[in-house]
Write a structure and sequence with these properties.
Elements: H1 7-44, E1 46-50, E2 64-69, E3 121-125, E4 139-146, E5 151-155, E6 158-161, E7 164-165, E8 175-181, H2 189-194, E9 200-204, E10 207-212, H3 214-221, E11 227-232, E12 257-262, E13 269-271, H4 277-287, E14 292-295, E15 298-301, E16 304-305, E17 308-310, E18 315-319, H5 329-332, E19 335-336, E20 340-350, E21 368-369
Antiparallel strand pairs: 1-2, 2-20, 3-4, 3-20, 4-18, 5-6, 5-12, 6-7, 8-10, 8-11, 9-10, 13-17, 14-15, 15-16, 18-19, 20-21
């Protein structure tokens, strides 16, 4: 016959159970609240971005972790609500997309604190990607070079906005130069580090291609013991034009000779012709969801013949700071306003992808302001 349990022991065990139940509920609530707050912050205030390429070198480096300010230009309301939070386009450890495009919310942006200005660093969704919702496209960092209503032209690598030359920062903008040494000796590691050269491309004996700034080029030319010549590389007019916007034989533009091109502005009406329709086709069909057809040398939009089109949103022209290693508006054309996520504000952490351990941390770039 079992002895009855001590009443004190029963009370103690029941208190323990109720304590653990209460603790579990408290922790659950705390975790849920934290996740909701994090989700709110990620959607409406900021998010982090890891840079993986050198297209914005020297401004932004591969291995930089950026803080994105979504409030500056106004928060873009999520377009694809059926997505898994805190994932980067794919479900972790799989290639399956982390979103469903069954529901698409029309583009809407809340009021911001600032208008977009020339030279701003923008964080955008890649317009070149097709068959994906806008906010599920790859994220890029680009420099805004022309605003809605501007006229842009590039002539011999020089940028003109509204017929005024745009002054590049000689310490920031990178071009490809051909570098010739005085002897057969390959520039050693100390030489490359001295002049801040990250990569060299061997063309032939004593001849190398390097990506550097104009300021670096000037310093190299002063080293007469090693350097024979440093020359800026240029594309000839009309060469390789099939690679560049609008990829049409009516416009033989390339990276170094481009335009003139008027940047579309919301509610502005343009005359469209068979000559200029290659400039606006993607806007009309893809970005603004119209049906465009050309029959018997006539243009039809949504089954109505027309020679006019009024833009529904603003567009921008963006460019990479590493000009000759770029994939920017010179390649894929206008940047629609609804593809803009926010502003790249500062680097909150940075690592050198070619190093390991503590030596890989770029201490000088932590909390570096990008504005």
């Amino acid at each position: 016959m079992k002895k009855p349990q001590n009443k004190k022991n029963i009370k103690k065990s029941s208190k323990k159970i109720s304590f653990f139940k209460g603790s579990f509920k408290d922790w659950s609530k705390a975790i849920i609240i934290a996740l909701v707050v994090l989700l709110f912050v990620r959607i409406f205030i900021t998010r982090a971005l890891t840079v993986s390429d050198s297209r914005m070198e020297k401004t932004v480096l591969a291995g930089d972790y950026l803080y994105i300010n979504k409030l500056k230009y106004g928060v873009r309301i999520p377009i694809t609500p059926l997505s898994i939070p805190f994932t980067d386009l794919t479900i972790p450890f799989t290639h399956a997309p982390s979103y469903l495009d069954w529901i698409q919310i029309p583009y809407l942006r809340l009021p911001g604190f600032s208008d977009i200005r020339r030279n701003d660093l923008l964080v955008v969704n890649n317009p070149f990607e097709q068959d994906k919702p806008i906010d599920c496209k790859i994220t890029l960092v680009k420099r805004c070079i022309a605003l809605p209503g501007d006229t842009l032209q590039i002539f011999d690598k020089k940028i003109f906005i509204n017929n005024q030359i745009h002054q590049d920062d000689s310490n920031t903008v990178v071009f490809r130069y051909r570098f010739v040494t005085k002897d057969r000796k390959i520039p050693d590691k100390n030489f490359l580090e001295k002049y801040g050269i990250s990569n060299t491309f061997n063309i032939s004996e004593r001849v190398y291609d390097i990506n550097i700034t104009p300021a670096q080029s000037d310093k190299l030319l002063e080293d007469t013991n090693i350097v024979h010549d440093v020359r800026l590389m240029r594309l000839e007019k009309e060469i390789l034009s099939h690679l560049f916007f609008p990829s049409n034989n009516k416009y033989n533009w390339n990276a170094d000779y481009f335009g003139p091109l008027a940047i579309p502005k919301k509610e502005t009406t343009v005359k469209i012709t068979l000559q200029n329709i290659p400039l606006y086709r993607k806007i009309i069909e893809t970005y603004e969801n119209n049906k465009l057809e050309i029959e018997n040398n006539k243009i039809f939009i949504n089954d109505a013949e027309t020679d006019r089109y009024t833009f529904k949103q603003n567009y921008y022209f963006v460019i990479d700071d590493n000009r000759d290693e770029a994939r920017d508006s010179r390649y894929w054309g206008f940047l629609p306003e609804d593809h803009i996520i926010g502003s790249a504000s500062f680097v909150w952490f940075s690592i050198d992808l070619n190093k390991s351990g503590l030596s890989s941390i770029r201490w000088s770039r932590i909390f570096k302001n990008l504005n």
